[in-house]
Write a structure and sequence with these properties.
The chain is mostly helical and 200 residues long. Helix content is 64%, strand content 4%. The longest helix is centred in the N-terminal third of the chain and has 17 residues, at 48-64.
C-alpha cells in the first residue's frame, strides 16, 4: 500500500456508509447505488460532483469491510459502528494505519499520553524515510493531521485533555463483534486492547 494524502477529503461518513452498505446488501452494482444516492440525494449534499466524490470514498471503505462486517454494521449498536467506521479508514489508507500502530498503540503500551507534537514528529519521520511524503506541502500535512485527529476522536480512541494533550482509550465493542474480530480481524480486535496482535 502506497503512501497517499488522499484522505484529506475524507469525512467520518458513518451515516453514508450505512446507506451504501444497505444498498450493497440489496445486490445493487456500484453505478446503480451511485445513481440512487444521487437521484434521492441520500447524502444531503448540494451538487452531483460532491455526491460522486463522497460516494467513491464511502464505497471504497464500505467494500473493505467484507460481507460479515457489513452485515454487522447494519445491525450494530453505536459503539460497534464507530469501531467499524474507524477500521474501514485504516484498512484503506496506509498513513492512518501506521499512525495507529506507531503512535497510539506504542504510547498506550508505554502508558503515556498522546501529544499534539506526536502528529508532527510522525510526519517528519515519514518524510525522512519516504520521498513521496517529503514532497508533501506543510498545508497538506496540516490537513492530514486534522483528518487523523477527526477519525481517532470520533471513534473515541483519543480524547483531548488540554490544548496539547490527549488521553488514549481502547474502544468498547459488543462481545459478539469482539469474538469475531479476535478470530478473523486482528486489526479490529486490537482496538479493544491497544496492543500488538498478529497483523497478518
Amino acid at each position: 500500500m502506497q503512501y497517499s494524502a488522499g484522505f484529506t477529503k475524507e469525512k467520518w461518513s458513518e451515516h453514508e456508509m450505512y446507506i451504501v452498505i444497505d444498498l450493497m446488501k440489496q445486490n445493487k452494482k456500484k453505478n446503480e447505488i451511485l445513481d440512487e444516492v444521487t437521484e434521492k440525494n441520500l447524502f444531503q449534499l448540494r451538487s452531483p460532483v460532491s455526491i460522486k466524490n463522497r460516494f467513491n470514498m464511502v464505497y471504497r471503505r464500505a467494500a473493505v469491510l467484507g460481507d460479515e462486517l457489513q452485515q454487522h454494521f447494519l445491525s450494530a449498536v453505536d459503539y460497534d459502528r464507530r469501531a467499524l467506521t474507524l477500521y474501514s479508514f485504516l484498512q484503506v489508507y496506509r498513513v492512518p494505519l501506521e499512525f495507529y500502530w506507531e503512535r497510539i498503540v506504542y504510547k498506550y503500551e508505554l502508558q503515556e499520553s498522546l501529544y499534539a507534537n506526536d502528529f508532527h514528529y510522525f510526519f517528519e519521520e515519514k518524510a525522512n524515510r519516504d520521498e513521496k511524503v517529503s514532497n508533501w506541502r506543510p498545508e497538506t500535512i496540516k490537513r492530514l493531521i486534522r483528518s487523523l485527529n477527526l477519525f481517532f476522536k470520533e471513534a473515541k480512541m483519543i480524547e483531548k485533555v488540554d490544548q496539547t494533550k490527549y488521553s488514549i482509550n481502547p474502544i468498547h465493542m459488543t462481545q459478539s463483534l469482539k469474538t469475531y474480530a479476535e478470530k478473523n480481524e486482528p486489526l479490529l480486535y486490537s482496538f479493544t486492547v491497544l496492543e500488538e496482535v498478529n497483523k497478518s
